[in-house]
């Protein structure tokens, strides 16, 4: 039995770090870890409803989250409580690190949304990214982050994330 199969179903804590501090920590079920990509499933960790105008995240929503150790982003499939696909929320991050039962991800402020039907693809929080100072303090990381956002947008507009996640 592979290590990936032996661990499947165990619990990980996803730890999202921003500006050196833990932004959010939540438990998730480990679905797979192939050494490059870690996939987990977790209920909406925000507690209350969060209405972005173009999508609402609410209690009962389920996120299947894909993190890479060699890519500067994560892709999260979002489904409602009945299993209906809402879309994909993507975070631009530094590559993920798994430390025992923690999956640590550093958020770099840039995000992307793709609706379930693909008609709505949005780049998000570019103003927050500019205000973060990263382009000034770590230009290489900033360039990698912007390239990751461009890659995500290209995937989203070219039909979605099925090829990436398959």
Task: Give the secondary structure arrangement, pairings included.
Blueprint: H1 3-7, E1 11-18, E2 21-33, E3 37-43, E4 50-51, E5 56-57, E6 62-68, E7 73-79, E8 85-93, E9 97-99, E10 102-115, E11 121-124, H2 126-132, H3 134-137, H4 139-157, H5 162-165
Parallel strand pairs: 1-10
Antiparallel strand pairs: 1-2, 2-3, 3-6, 4-5, 6-7, 7-8, 8-10, 9-10, 10-11
Can you describe this structure?
The strands form two sheets. Strands 1-2-3-6-7-8-10 form a seven-stranded mixed barrel. A two-stranded antiparallel ribbon has the order 4-5. It has a single domain (3-165), classed as Beta Barrel (FomD barrel-like fold). By secondary structure, it is an alpha+beta fold. The chain is 23% helix and 46% strand. The protein has five helices and eleven strands; from the N terminus they run H-E-E-E-E-E-E-E-E-E-E-E-H-H-H-H. Strand 7 (73-79) and strand 8 (85-93) form a beta hairpin. It has helices at residues 3-7, 126-132, 134-137, 139-157, 162-165, and strands at residues 11-18, 21-33, 37-43, 50-51, 56-57, 62-68, 73-79, 85-93, 97-99, 102-115, 121-124.
